[in-house]
Specification:
This is AAA family ATPase. α16 crosses α18. This protein has a 5-stranded parallel sheet with strand order 2-5-8-1-9. The longest helix is centred in the last third of the chain and has 19 residues. The chain is of the alpha/beta class.
Length: 363
């Protein structure tokens, strides 16, 4: 068994190594300094190119990809904002893999994130014995990205305290990181060509620690919107669920009719409008495409490991409970009303099964 096969989720540069290598070999376009691919090849890697056998990896507006790549080719960072579950992190990973050949220089933002997790820290045994030196320095993602000319990903930047966010000001403006503990040339790290930052922020969370005006000026903002088309979202959920189920040892594919019910349910609970235009209860929790894929995965696992089949709409109800009750206990009541009032109005065996399984909800 190879190392890749032991990973639950290999990074994009490993999952799509063959495509990146093929694009690199055939790439005749002009490349921005420090980039692994040209803008055209990087775009093809993300949105797909059937002629070259490159699969589509991100479902969204291709012009968003164009603007994002152009932003990274400038001296400004890129900030992807949008509702939770709109594949902002996936997009940042794909862009970093295409531009730098690596997507693992990642900072995960949170209330406990500190500057040393972003910039650098010290090997304290060496620090005590030798004092501050390049040998005792432990580089964090930002320092590595600057020294190597790579793209750094900063996930959920607005979850970090404001003073931690502002540690990016100098690297993004002067393109230099000072290390006061070191003297001479070792005390300044100048960014090499290819360095930049891709940050992500959820629109629901932006008020947690809103960015300073100074930091906002150093980013270009791009909004990632939910998938508007039903069939496109259904195809994506089916493809992603199939991959997850295969990795989990499930040998039967997900049922298309079950996924149709699942995607329709999520879209109606997300938007607060039923198929016939009637008002439906809108849940306060995030009913995103990512959550849809997660529930589709759980439905397939439940059906296969409990009964040896692909899973039915009744399994949707059992798996939805954990999704619906995340933020507000009242969401379970709203989900129950939806199953009682909206599901019976729809035709099909799976919609009837969805309605009949409402007793599986807790409470």
């Amino acid at each position: 068994m190879t190392t890749e096969e032991t990973f639950q989720r290999p990074p994009a540069e490993i999952r799509y190594a063959d495509e990146l290598a093929r694009l690199g070999e055939d790439d005749r376009g002009g490349r921005p300094p420090g980039w692994a691919l040209s803008l055209e090849a990087a775009r093809a890697f993300i949105v797909g190119d059937e002629r070259r056998g490159i699969r589509r990896k991100f479902v969204g507006d291709p012009s968003l990809i164009d603007r994002a790549l152009v932003s990274l080719a400038t001296s400004r960072g890129l900030l992807l904002v949008g509702e939770p579950g709109t594949a902002k992190s996936l997009l940042s990973e794909l862009i970093a893999a295409a531009v730098s050949g690596t997507s693992t220089l990642t900072i995960q933002g949170g209330a406990a994130t500190t500057e040393d997790q972003i910039k650098y820290s010290w090997n304290y045994a060496l620090l005590v014995s030798e004092g501050p030196s390049p040998r005792s320095l432990v580089p964090a993602p930002l320092l590595k990205g600057m020294a190597e000319g790579k793209v750094v990903r900063f996930e959920e930047i607005t979850r970090c305290p404001l003073e931690v966010q502002d540690s990016l000001l100098s690297p993004l403006s002067e393109r230099v990181l000072a290390i006061p503990e070191l003297s001479g040339a070792d005390g300044m790290v100048f960014a090499r060509q290819g360095f930049n930052v891709i940050a992500t922020a959820n629109t629901r969370d932006r008020g947690v620690n809103d960015m300073s005006a100074a930091l906002k000026r150093r980013f270009n903002f791009e909004t990632v919107f939910p998938i508007a088309d039903f069939t496109t979202e259904l195809d994506l959920v089916e493809a992603e669920a199939r991959v997850l189920l295969e990795a989990s040892g499930v040998t039967v594919p997900p049922r298309r009719d079950v996924l149709e019910v699942l995607v329709a349910t999520f879209r109606e609970l997300r938007g607060g409008t039923a198929e016939n235009g009637a008002a439906a209860d809108r849940l306060s929790t995030v009913m995103s495409t990512a959550e849809t894929v997660s529930v589709a995965h759980a439905v397939g696992l439940r059906g296969w490991f409990l009964r040896g089949e692909a899973g039915t709409a009744a399994d949707i109800v059992a798996c939805l409970a954990g999704t619906a009750a995340k933020d507000n206990a009242d969401d379970l009541a709203r989900l129950r009303r939806y199953l009682e009032q909206q599901a019976p109005r729809r035709r099909g065996e799976q919609w009837r099964a969805l309605h009949d399984a409402r007793h599986l909800l807790p409470g």
